[in-house]
Specification:
Bound molecules: nickel (II) ion
Order of helices and strands: HEEEEEEEHH
Number of helices: 3
Oligomer: single chain
Radius of gyration: 16 Å
CATH architecture: Alpha-Beta Complex
CATH topology: Peptide Deformylase
Largest sheet: 5 strands, antiparallel
Amino acid sequence: MSVRPIIILPDPRLRLVSEPVTAIDDDIRRLVEDMFDTMYDAPGIGLAAIQIGVPKRVVTVDLAKKDEPRAPQVFINPEILARSEETSVYEEGCLSIPDVHEDVERPARIRVRYLDLDGKPHEIEADGLLATCLQHEIDHLNGILFIDHISKLKRDRILKKFAKAAKRAAG
Ligand code: NI
């Protein structure tokens, strides 16, 4: 179990399309443990494997509030089967784009198919925060970031800021 470094914009790996998991073996179980350790340490409510540099279709989520017991959820090879026409708006952030929060409009409800850690298939209807969180994380698996859903003007400003910071860090 270990906390792994989270990759930050403009790391080009954030634009990779992640590969499906073909077998749930010890490597995947270790990856999921590390993702939870990393997500809780950050702290965040959702993480995609690519955010720790692993291009596999694995997502971890925990929407429990601070005073509630932990409620870890794992989604392997998640797939959105249907989206509602009705939308909802949440202020989103991303551990790979620190200190940026913007309103994003997405379908309010989705139907998702995924495998659990035992390789068992599930289908769920998600709404509210879970629907938004899953869409945000599944976007990561396709190389899409939440800033891709905001205005170009705002996005360009954020990209510029992070490009500058990366340049400064590289020195
Ligand atoms: Ni994110």
